Each structure stands twice: as structure tokens, then as C-alpha cells.
Amino acid sequence: MLIIGITGTLGAGKGTLVDYLIKHEEFRHFSVRQYLIEEIEKQGLPVNRDSMTMVANRLRKNHHPAFIIEKLYEKASKHGGRAIIESIRTPGEEVRIVV
Fold first, then answer.
1. What whole-number distance in Å separates Cα of residue 58 and Cα of residue 96?
2. Which end of the chain is more exposed for a tag (fewer CB within 10 A), N or C?
3. SS3 of residue 65 by DSSP
């Protein structure tokens, strides 16, 4: 099992790297954006950047800073193969996993 986390600013090329790893290296993609979209839809909110920011901040506040990343890490771990988690954006989301 190999799980990689990708971070970077808007327009830094995270998506390009993810696309390459999916296409050429057979990684499975776990997206913070998709996770947030699912949470937004559960709450009946409009899917837009403001909702994403609000929901992400609320999840971090109500749980802990790395909550979203840890949820995606759990999903990636269950997958068991090679996975990539995109996009780690805040300092509190860095997760150190020791195996």
C-alpha cells in the first residue's frame, strides 16, 4: 500500500500530477473537493467555493484540523492499493502516519 498526499496553491499543477498518477501509475484518487461536495449536498447547500470553505472550516472546527484528510486516508487504506489524496491545503491537515 502506498498513499501520497498532494498539496499546493491554486493553479500549482496538483490536478495534472493526479491525472498522471491515475493514468500512468494506476493510483486511485481521493479528493478533498469531492468529499466536500458530498457533505455540501447532504446539507442541501449550493455547491460553490463559499459553501466548500464554510463546510470545510466547520468540519475542522467541530472535529479537528486534519479531520477531512483522515477520513480520506481511511478510505484510501481500505482500498489497499496505491492512492493519492488531493488536496491538502491547511497546515493542520498534514497527517503523519507511522507504519
1. 22
2. C
3. coil
Three-state DSSP state, 9: coil
| Alpha-carbon gap, residue 99 to 88, rounded angstroms | 20
Range 2-89: architecture per CATH: 3-Layer(aba) Sandwich (3.40)
pLDDT in tens, 69-91: 999 999 999 988 999 999 777 66
Burial (CB < 10 A; 0-12, 13-18, 19+), residue 59, is middle
Rounded distance between C-alpha atoms, residue 12 and residue 88, angstroms: 13
What φ, ψ does residue 83 adopt, rounded to 5°?
Answer: -140, 155
